[in-house]
Description:
Blueprint: H1 2-5, H2 24-27, H3 35-42, H4 46-54, H5 70-84, H6 89-96, E1 110-113, E2 118-121, H7 125-141, H8 145-165
Antiparallel strand pairs: 1-2
Amino acid sequence: MPGDVEQARVHDQDAQATDSLFSYDEISSNGGRKPSEVCEQMGLNWLAAQQLYADGWISFDPVETTEMTVPQEVELTFVGRLVAAGCDHNILTFLLADLEKPYAYRVDRLYYDWEGRCWDLLPRYEHFRSLFQEWLEDLVDSGQLRKLQELKERLERSIHNLHRMSPW
């Protein structure tokens, strides 16, 4: 799985590519941000961010960095959120053992599989859509008319509610 996880890594060229996996606009619409701003936003103590650099968890010195690159912001966010959630040095060592430095991984693309003790990619939207289609087909194939009728009624209620809430 570690090879798959690399798909969630952000690279320097991602900041310039408009069709990249992770565009610059998704990070910050105001240009490069200061490390202190990102720390404040995620609830990470500024001294803890400095210690992350001193201990080698992040690849750049937040004190010396006035504007972060996209990968730096992603890296600080990834590791910083773990620390802000209560992970200490030992837990970071355990959790990050199979990932490659710098830890510039998209937090919206990964999850930690506690049973498998590894990081893995979250399924993409297309995967869920495919599963839903298969489920509907299974309901039809197995003659689950009552369940299909319930789904139809729920959908109709949802559509009706959206029409009521819509300003158009």
